[in-house]
Amino acid sequence: MADEKLVLDAFGVYGIGYSLERLEWAIASYDNAAQLASFFRTLRWYEQVRSFEDIGREAKDFDDKLSSYGDKAVSDSTKNELRDARARWDTLARERLGDLYLCTPSSKIDPKNLIKGIEGFLSQECYSLLNRIEKIDLIEACGCILIGSATAAEHIALRAAESLLRRWYELKTKNKLEYKTWGVVLDRLVTEYPDENKRPKELGFLGYLKHRRDEVAHPERISSFTEADATLMTVCGLIERLEPVLTALAASKKKRLRTIKKK
């Protein structure tokens, strides 16, 4: 979304420190307004970064102001104003960088994809298939893997899978499902496909995920990162396999509702 803010990675942390050091040197070395403006221009980007927006906005204002002077020399009072701003930004940056924490994931999944959340693994068509809570669950599962919480990641990912299972059953049977255990819902869904040769292969995914759910629910078991990675990827595979199934069932439901309205 357009209003979403970026978060600094390790290189970004280095970058803001480097830019502030270079700015201090430039203010002491140059009098030309256009030259000074170029150093503020590198900092205006931070308007897009969470917790550093005010530094970026001020840098933008100084860039615009200095650029309007062209190649003129800046006055001593302007130089003092620039020094004060740089010193203030340096203090603010140090304070806010202290609130950031870097982590080294133990997962074998590419951290760049995990940082994007579940959208790092699914096509837009599959992502749009998820309801709001399923999206939140899977985004949180990615976050848990990033910070080293494998059991929490697996539990939350499995919750999203259970939600998909219930929606599949309700769309298939056209019946609202009362709260039942995963096993009961899975068994009921299997009965909807009595011919084993025509039974969707997606049910195999669900059988594996049910086994993992039973393991995670055991009070004496904790998940490994290999298990958490595998479960997240299996849930993503389930979503991809269910995309045509749920899309077709949802379209059938809409058609049925239109027919009812016409009557």
Helix content: 55-70%
Q: Please give the alpha-carbon distance between the first and last residues.
A: 41 Å
Molecular shape: elongated
What's the tally of helices? 11
Number of strands: 0
- Global Rg: 27 Å
Mean pLDDT: 84
Please indicate the percent range of residues in DSSP E strands (runs of 2 or more). under 5%
CATH fold category name of the largest domain: Four Helix Bundle (Hemerythrin (Met), subunit A)
Largest sheet: none
Q: CATH superfamily of the largest domain, please?
A: Nucleotidyltransferases  domain 2
Strand pairing plus helix content: what structural class? mainly alpha
* Total count of domains: 2
Query: What is the CATH-assigned architecture of the largest domain?
Result: Up-down Bundle
Poorly predicted sequence stretches spanning 5 or more consecutive residues: none
CATH class of the largest domain: Mainly Alpha
Order of helices and strands: HHHHHHHHHHH
What does this structure look like?
The protein is elongated, with a radius of gyration of 27 Å. With 263 residues, the protein is mainly α. The two termini are 41 Å apart. The protein folds into two domains: 10-97, no CATH class; 111-262, Four Helix Bundle (Hemerythrin (Met), subunit A) (Up-down Bundle), CATH 1.20.120. The longest helix is centred in the last third of the chain and has 38 residues, at 225-262. The model has no long low-confidence stretch (mean pLDDT 84). It has helices at 10-29, 33-41, 53-68, 76-97, 111-115, 124-129, 132-147, 150-173, 182-191, 202-217, 225-262.
